[in-house]
Structure formats: C-alpha cells, structure tokens
Specification:
DNA polymerase, domain 1, hpI Integrase, Chain A, about 350 residues, mainly alpha, 3-stranded antiparallel beta sheet
C-alpha cells in the first residue's frame, strides 16, 4: 500500500478527518449530521494514537495513516479501541463502529486517489467484529425485579435524583420511546376531577405519526413521583418558561429549552440498570439505554396476555408488525399472535 500514485496532495492525518467530515456532512446519501461529529473525531483520535505509538508499541516506528495494512486494522480492533469511561471494557458493538468508520474514511481516501486500496475492507470474515444483534434485547426477570426495587424511591433528596426517579418510572411503566421521554412537556400532563379536586391522571403523547398521538394512563407510583418532581422542578429548570417536563439546566446550552440530550438520558437509564444488575448479582443487560426498558415492558405486557393489537397501540406503533423483533422473548402461545 506504500507504493501508489497520489492524484491529489496527501493530507495530514488530522486534516483527513476534517475533509471527510465536510464531505460526509454534505452527502445526500449518508449525511452524518453535527451530533455525530464529536464521536467520529474521538474514534479517529484513538486510531491515530494507535498508529503514532507503532500499534501500541508493537513496532518501533509510527505508522503513517496512508501506509496502513489490513493487519494493522485487525490488530487495532483486537487491542486498540478504548472506552471513554475509564476501566470499562470495549464491546463488540463499539469495535464494529470503529471498523465501519475506518471503512468509510479510507473509502473516501481511496476515491481521492491518496491510497490504492482500502485496508479496512480487506478483512477476513473471522477478523470482522461481530454484527450487532438487531433483535430486541430485554432485561432478565431478576434485573427487572431489582430495577423495581431501585425505583421504590429516589436515590436521594437531590432534585436531580427526584427528577430521574419520576422519569425512570414513566419509562418502565409506560414503555415510552427515548424521544417521547425527552420531549414530554409540563402541558403533557392531563388531570381528572376526583372528589372536587384535580388529580394527575395521564400523559398526552404527541409524536409525528397518527399512532404516536395517544394518551397513557399514569399508575399511582408514577403520579406520586411526578408530583414530587414538580414540587422541586424550579430548582433545576433554567428559567420559568422552560416547557420540558423532565428538564435539565444543561440542555439550554444546546438551544433545546432545557431538554435532555439523548446522551444524558442514556446515562440516567444506564446507571440505574447497572445498579439493578449489581443487586441481582447478574451481568449488566446487553443494552443499557432506554430502548431495553421499553422492550422489556412491551414483552411483559404481551406475556401477560394483553392482546398484541392493544400493546401496539400503547407503544404508538402502526401495527403489530412493530413488535416482531421481540418474538423470541414471547411465550409460545403469544408468539403466534405477533
């Protein structure tokens, strides 16, 4: 790969990522968007560190980005990627994402004439990180049971913990999508008149699709948790006009009027799932974000003999086909209905 005729001037390694990001952001076929840029830069810097240290010390000299071989890529995927969290293991999903990023960047470099072939495309199947399992992952019964214990009360009296407690109960009880949870507003709360006074009764969800516009009845534990959160919400909201129900004083930096980012939500959910798994003396679930909470609740409804058509309505799905990815977790008599 070292012998090739570069058609265009060869860019430096840090310039290459800028050029590729600019090219990809303008792509009609596969635009990356601004939100993905920090992750791509982080992945690329990890790759460059691996090259500049000679493959983590395997070679005495640094490896130039344009002189990489498929062997370098394989060794990097086996030992090079690092987690952003100190001490955390790197999952196969993360390794595959590194590989796919290298594939795309080196494809771009090849198209520009800077390299003769793409080293990330030349991997044998055995060397490729395993594909992501697109089947719907769920929690084990033990982890789910201990998650209910974790959510019996807020972790502390801190307003953020009170918020997280209410948010997590809405996710576990109502199977909200991550976006629905983040975009709930105070005006989403619906009240009933009970014994001459108003009582919190439901959440109005208003997604873009007709099936996503629905009303979800709140169980008593979620009502109590939301009421407790509303009592201290002003201590977290970054202003009196913030509409977001589960707001954060950090979200306004992104112009989102106090709305949680997807990363914030993932962290809040993930910490609780890890705590539940630890209490259950089991490994953490295969996914640690809000989607696995939703999947687990949907499976529980189905296995409790709630008709699949009703579960699809509660989930905001177009029809029962949207539940198909969960079939492997369903009881045999339920599976035939999905």
């Amino acid at each position: 790969m070292t012998e090739h005729a570069a058609v265009l001037p060869l860019p430096g390694d840090t310039v290459l990522i800028d050029l590729w990001l600019e090219h990809s952001s303008a792509s009609d076929r596969d635009p990356i968007g601004l939100k993905g840029e920090p992750s791509y830069r982080y992945f690329w810097s990890t790759w460059l560190h691996y090259l500049k240290t000679g493959g983590n010390g395997a070679q005495q000299e640094p490896i130039a980005w344009h002189e990489v071989t498929n062997v370098d890529v394989v060794r990097f995927l086996q030992s090079g990627p690092t987690s952003r969290k100190v001490g955390a293991n790197v999952s196969d999903i993360t390794r595959r994402r590194y590989w796919r990023l290298l594939e795309r960047i080196y494809d771009y470099a090849k198209h520009q004439g800077w390299i003769a072939s793409n080293p990330a495309k030349a991997l044998e199947e055995v060397d490729q990180p395993p594909k992501e399992d697109h089947k719907g992952a769920i929690m084990t019964p033990a982890v789910w049971a201990h998650l209910q214990r974790v959510l019996e009360k807020p972790q502390s009296d801190d307003p953020v913990d009170v918020r997280n407690h209410a948010l997590l109960l809405c996710l576990t009880e109502l199977a909200l999508t991550p976006m629905e949870a983040r975009q709930l507003s105070v005006s989403s709360i619906l009240f009933d008149q009970v014994a001459g006074r108003q009582r919190m009764a439901a959440l109005q969800l208003d997604g873009p699709g007709p099936n996503q516009r629905r009303r979800m009845v709140l169980p008593d534990n979620a009502v109590r948790a939301i009421e407790a959160w509303l009592a201290v919400r002003d201590l977290v909201a970054c202003g009196p006009d913030v509409p977001t129900l589960f707001c954060t004083n950090q979200g306004a930096k992104n112009g989102a009027m106090g709305e949680m980012t997807s990363v914030m939500l993932f962290y809040v959910v993930g910490e609780s799932l890890k705590r539940a798994a630890e209490l259950a003396k089991q490994p953490p679930p295969p996914r640690l974000g809000p989607q696995i909470v939703r999947n687990t609740r949907l499976v529980m409804w189905l296995n409790d003999c709630v008709p699949a058509s009703q579960v699809a309505i509660w989930a905001g799905l177009k029809n029962v086909k949207g539940l198909y990815h969960l079939r492997e977790h369903l009881n045999p008599e339920v599976r035939i209905t999905v």
